[in-house]
Amino acid sequence: MPFPNPLKPGETNNLNGAPDGGHTWSGVYNRILVAKPDDEFQPLNKKELIASNDVVKAIDGKDAAINRIQDRTEGKPVQQTDITTGGDKLPGVNIDEWLAKSYGDNQNKK
Questions:
Q1: Above 90 in pLDDT, residue 69?
Q2: DSSP 20
Q3: Distance from C-alpha of 73 to C-alpha of 71, rounded to nearest angstrom
Q4: CA atoms of 31 and 39, how far apart (whole Å)
Q5: What's the CA gap between 46 and 79, in Å, rounded?
Q6: Taking the complete model, does pTM exceed 0.70, yes or no?
Q7: By C-alpha distance, which of 34, 72, 20, 35 is closest to 50?
Q8: pLDDT at residue 1, rounded to an integer
Q9: How far is CA 41 from CA 19, 31, 60, 83, 90, in A?
Q10: How far apart (Å, rounded) are the C-alpha atoms in residues 51 and 65?
Q11: Quick check: helix, strand or coil at residue 16?
Q12: Contacts of 5 (CB under 8 A, 6+ apart)
């Protein structure tokens, strides 16, 4: 039996809405990245400390830090994959036949 919901449809307990992006890795990185170069950034928590260290490494030219920051703020680039056989499409599978073959025999053995 499901738990009763004290809220009526359309009501919410979260009157302020979702928090600003500062709680996500991308939000923390973006907040650090938009600061002026001569501004001193004071991390408020360990997540901000880790991200600020990554930004320092990226400024120093460390590829891993640059890639990590880009992945968190912009998303990973789309990678095309070819799951065919030498450019030919793979044969389709009839799910009913596959299920009958895979499970039909097992049920008869019980």
A1: yes
A2: P
A3: 6
A4: 12
A5: 32
A6: no
A7: 72
A8: 59
A9: 21, 10, 17, 46, 54
A10: 9
A11: coil
A12: none
